[in-house]
Amino acid sequence: MAHWADQWMNEDLGQPMQYTHKSCGHKMTLRLVCSECHETLDAKQVKAELTQHDYAYLEQHKISS
């Protein structure tokens, strides 16, 4: 979300937030990375699916999807 806001909500004034990695002290850019192959991701590359735990929660709380 922060990366998206930095890119699309900055009103051409530049990046509003600066991030520093506490462990190494370097300035950094936030990015979403696959935990398995370590490829940097774009939102269009991600498919979100409900799990059976989500369906059980919805059923328990009588929430329709």
SSE layout:
Blueprint: H1 2-8, E1 19-20, E2 27-28, H2 52-60
Antiparallel strand pairs: 1-2
Q: Can you describe what's shown?
A:
With 65 residues, the protein is an alpha+beta fold. The protein has one domain (2-60). The chain contains two helices and two strands. The chain has a two-stranded antiparallel ribbon with strand order 1-2. A hairpin with a 6-residue loop joins strand 1 (19-20) and strand 2 (27-28). The longest helix has 9 residues, at 52-60. The model has no long low-confidence stretch (mean pLDDT 81).
What is the total number of structural domains? Answer: 1
Span from first to last CA?
24 Å
Q: How many DSSP E strands?
A: 2
Principal-axes geometry comes out as: elongated
Question: What is the number of helical segments per DSSP (H or I, 4+ residues)?
Answer: 2
Give the class from helix and strand content and strand pairing: alpha+beta
The sequence of SSEs as H and E is HEEH
Strand order of the largest sheet: 1-2
Strand content: 5-15%
What's the alpha carbon Rg, rounded to whole Å? 18 Å
Biggest sheet character: 2 strands, antiparallel
